[in-house]
Amino acid sequence: MATSLSATTPRFTFASPTFQTLYSRLSIPLSLPLPLSSSHFLSDPKTLSSLSRHHRGLLSHCHRHSRGFATRAESENGSEPARHYDFDLFTIGAGSGGVRASRFAANFGASVAVCELPFSTISSDTTGGFGGTCVLRGCVPKKLLVYASNYSHEFEESHGFGWKYDAEPKHDWSTLMANKNAELQRLTGIYKNILKNAGVMLVEGRGKIVDPHTVDVDGKLYSARHIVISVGGRPFIPEIPGSEYAIDSDAALDLPSKPEKIAIVGGGYIAVEFAGIFNGLTSDVHVFIRQKKVLRGFDEEIRDFVAEQMSLRGIEIHTEESPQAIIKSADGSLSLKTNKGTVEGFSHVMFATGRRPNTKNLGLETVGVKMTKNGAIEVDEYSRTSVPSIWAVGDVTDRLNLTPVALMEGGALAKTLFQNEPTKPDYRAVPSAVFSQPPIGQVGLTEEQAIQEYGDVDIFTANFKPLKATISGLPDRVLMKLVVCAKTNKVLGLHMCGEDAAETVQGFAVAVKAGLTKADFDATVGIHPTAAEEFVTMRTPTRKIRKTSEEKIDSGVKAPAGV
Ligand SMILES: Cc1cc2nc3c(=O)[nH]c(=O)nc-3n(C[C@H](O)[C@H](O)[C@H](O)COP(=O)(O)OP(=O)(O)OC[C@H]3O[C@@H](n4cnc5c(N)ncnc54)[C@H](O)[C@@H]3O)c2cc1C
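^ Glutathione reductase, sequence as received from the core. Prediction below:
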C-alpha cells in the first residue's frame, strides 16, 4: 500500500532522447468534434447545479464508485475521513501526463477535475492549452515541420529517378503555418473532448496549491483528496547580453516568416531537430555547441555519424563555442559572439538550451513539496511528493522527459490511487528517437553504458549506402548497431541513424525490452529489401570488447541487401 512506498527518487543520468507522437498512444478518435465552447468550463465546482445533466450523472456515478477509494486514501495521505472533498483527484496541467492521469482515474471511477491555462501557440505564465507541450509546442508541430522540410531532400533524390521540374519547387511558409495551427486547434479541442467524455471536469485557469487538499484556480477554491501536479516545463534562455533577441522552440515553431539564416545554440535533440527542419526548408543553418559533439548521452558512434550526415546536408556545426552575446545591427540582422569569434548576418538566433520545470509560484514551498535545485519536484517511485496527498508526473519531475514516459507515469499513478494496484513506472528500455535528418532511433544501452555495466560486450555495426542512395546519387548513408552482452548473448542496446530509424526502432524495442538474445535476432527472417533487415543479418561482430582488451574485427561493408 502507498504508506510503505519507498521515498527514493529515480533519476536518470543520461540525456533524454526523444520520440513518437501521441496519436497512437492515446488512440485519439480523429472524428471527434471540435473545441468545446467556454460554457463547458466549470466556474463553480461547489454547485453541481451549474453542470449539465450529463456531467451531474457522471459525477454522481463517479462519487458512488469512488467511495471505496476514499476509505483507502484516508489513512495514507492525511485526508480527513469525514471531510467532503469536491473531487477525488484534482490535476494541475493538462499535458500528456495530466490528461492520462485524469482520464484513467475517471475511468477507474474517481471524480476528477483538471485545470489548464488558456490556449496559445506560445507558452507563458498565463497561456498553455489542453494537450500540453507535446501536442501544441513539441512533438506534433515539430514533426509536421519535419515532414515539410523533408521534401527538399526528396526533390533532390528524385532527379536520379528521372524526375525533372521546369522550375525549382517553391515553399510557402504561411500555408505551412496556417495548416499547422489549424491542426493544433483541432487537437486541443480533441483533448478537451477526451477528458469531457471520460467525465473529467475541465477548469480553465492557472492552478496554485493552497494547502495539501486545496487548489486555487484564479481565485476559486477546489478541494480534493489527491492533487497531481503535471505542469511540465518551459524553454530556458540563459541571460547574456542581447538574449532578448533570441527565440526559443515555442517561437521557432510559429514564426511569421522563414528564417533566412539562423543560429541554433545547443546540441541536444531539440537543437538538432530544428537544424534539420530549417535546413530542409532552405535556411542557412549554423549550430553552436559547447561540447565537441552533438547529442550528449547518445551512443558515441551515432553522435559522430549524425553530425557528419548533417554537415553533408549543409548544416554548419560550430563545436566548443559558447555564446557570449547577441548583437543587433542597424539593418536588423543579428550577430552571435562566442568565445571563438563572431558570426554575423543572422535573421534569427534560436536557443535550444534546455527547459525548466513550471514550479514557480505554484504554492509548493508553502505546503512543503520538496524540489531539486533546478525546480523539479522530487517524487518517490510511485510519483508521490514529500506531501502525502500531492503527486507529480511528467516533465515537472525531470525524470525522463518524453511524452510516452509522462503517459506511463500518469497511467501508473491512476492505477496506484484508484485501482488498488500500486504501480511503478518502468523505465527500462524506453525507446526514443531524434527527428534529425537523417533521424535516429535507439533503445537500451549505448556501447559506453554497456561496457561500464557489463564489461564484456560484442558490437555489431553496419554502415552502408542505402538502396535509394545508389540511384539518387546523394551521399546518404545508414548506421545500424547492436550492443550484445558477451556473457548472456542478450541484446543490450540497438541504435540506428538513417531513413525510417524511428519507425524501425519502435518495432525492435519490443525485442530489446523482452530481453531477447542475438541468437533470437539471428533466427528471425529479414524483410527484403529493407534497411531494417540488417538488424537480423549482422553475423560477425565489428569488435569484441573484453574488460582488458578490445579486439577489432573488420566485418567489411554490408553486401547490398544482405545477399
Ligand atoms: C520542441 C519539443 C519537441 C519535443 N519532441 C518530443 C518528441 O518528439 N517525442 C517525445 O516523446 N517528447 C518530445 N518532447 C517532450 C514532450 O513534449 C514532453 O516530455 C511532454 O509534453 C511532457 O508532458 P507533461 O504532461 O509532463 O507536460 P506538458 O505537456 O508540458 O504539460 C503541462 C501543462 O501544464 C500547463 N500548466 C503549467 N502550469 C500550470 C498551472 N499553474 N495551472 C494550470 N496549468 C498549468 C501547461 O500549460 C501545459 O499545458 C518535445 C518537447 C519539445 C519542447
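The longest strand covers residues 220-229.
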